[in-house]
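Cross-posting from the modeling subforum.

Setting up a comparison between two proteins and wanted a second pair of eyes on the formatting. Protein 1 (sequence, then structure tokens):
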Amino acid sequence: MDGSQPDPPVDPFAGFPAASPAAIGGAWQTPGSFGAAGRGPRLLSGGGRRATVISTTSTLVVLGALVAVFLLAPGSSQVRHTFFNPTDMWQSFVGDPKKGYYSVGEAIWLNIRMFLAAEVLILALALLIALIRQSRSPVLFPFRVLSLIYVDFFRGVPLLLVLLAIGFGVPALRLPFVSTQSAAIYGVATLVLSYSAYVSEVYRAGLNSVHQSQVAAARSLGLSQATALRHVILPQAVRNIIPPLLNDFISLQKDTALVSVLGAIEANEAAQIYSSTVFNYSSYAVAAILFLILTIPLARFTDRLIDRDRRRRLAGAAT
């Protein structure tokens, strides 16, 4: 080309000039639309006032159609009385031990405590497993084999089966201190064992995403292997895996409800006790709403992190 215009950027993979975003996306990919690199929430961003009106109208039409189908169904009144009775929802939320049922609102705190305790332990144990599997030292070979077996086993066995095995098997061993813990403790131990297998693979993916040039640069500066891992590799790896980690922890929050099979009075168990006492399932709707209150903010925070990471990568590719 002549010197009057700069050469277009070259696609490093294809070897020819890269197409502009407008050429790739076409006329429909306006700034701020789905798939664009604009700032702000992609779910609510549109193409101006007209797009906002259209999206709002379509949303109201779809929601109105769903509500109409539910209300006009032959068994709608029975379903609303059984699952969404306001009186039963409030009674199950506040509870009344004198009548034989617990408060779902208070029981959810056990789910939160189990989630927080398991999350901290999972982060530590999964990182240890990932580092062992990534190591190349001959001394750690037996531990690498054990960690591989551990990951394969707990990723392959359903969480509920592991929960039953630990919750009923460990007390049957009659070991001092170990066999006398509460159902919540066994539930947390099960969640840690099972989820650490998944999260360790997330850690490994993050460690492998750090380019070897970063490791070579750190070692060329005189950093030891451990120092380079702590100050160079791990910070980059953790930054890359925060979104998938948060997705795993959203599932972890929900899976705390499985501890109810051991008899722990958490939100799901309290809802089950209420439904079996008064023969109404509105308590399950209350438990579902409480879990949504816990998980939706974390899900939206995860989306924001993913979007920020996407913008950061696009900005780095453009420079």
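Protein 2 (same layout):
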Amino acid sequence: MFEKVLLALALFCAAVALGPPPMAAPLNTAAGKPPMSKAQPTVKARPGSPEKKTDGASKTNAPGEGKKSPSGKALSEKVPVKKAPPGRAPPEKTSATPPAPIPATSEAGKKIFADKGCGGCHATSGPEKRIPVTERANIKGPSLWYAGSKFRPGYPAKWLASPKAFRGVLHGTMKKGVTPHPGLSPDEAKAAGAYLESLRDAEMPSGVVPSWKKIPRRVLRRARILFQKKQPCYACHRVKIRKTVYRTPIKLGGFSGPHLIDAGLRLRPDFIAAFLKNPARYNPNGRMPIYSDKAFTRLSEKDIIGLAAYISTFKEKP
């Protein structure tokens, strides 16, 4: 009996020395699993919402992060910047002032005439001298020393802005072709036209051809016979005329001389008369017949005036 008491006392002392045993976690009666720890709670994510990661520290999103624009792109994405292609510098913004307008004066036109090198093809002083036939191929353009007496007002500026050939052959030759002529800007053309109109033949008379509203019938009939039958002028000059009184106008004629289709819009009637009287004064190296010579039909003063008035009625577009 005494031995049992000692054994119980020894066991009690050993238990006090070792301490109480660890308590086992109670089982979940519903699923047979231990309950979840309170230190690590879990939250179920909603369907379709982005999954959040928790690493024990709270993390806040930067402004705009995770948001989307109406187009569906994230606001945090960088917008691509267009760059200039390699080897080409981006255009620089310049604040250069536009050039000053060119005054439509003969002084400004004379400067343009010189700067463009127009004097290399066109003479502005005359009358010119007759040269040998072998040297005429070097002539590149018609003389302009009498341009103001030849052309109607405003025509030089209009033509220089949109030049068109007058002949169907290369100038100074009989070779078929068109000699190109450079054009000018509207301001340059007006200034150059003013300069050309200032060049006049002081000896050319004015008021020779009457300013008829309607050419007298007998004058027109005589001029038409001379122009179409006795010469005929359209062998060298392209025209648009009626072969008889009742036929519609047609284009016909040669290309070796300047066309006369729009002669009434281009040429002054007094110049046409002066040229018919003395073509050697204005074109000494040309092929125009001299009507005071025995080899050609002699024309009276009335015939020349009638022809000039008749040619001035040609006002078709070429």
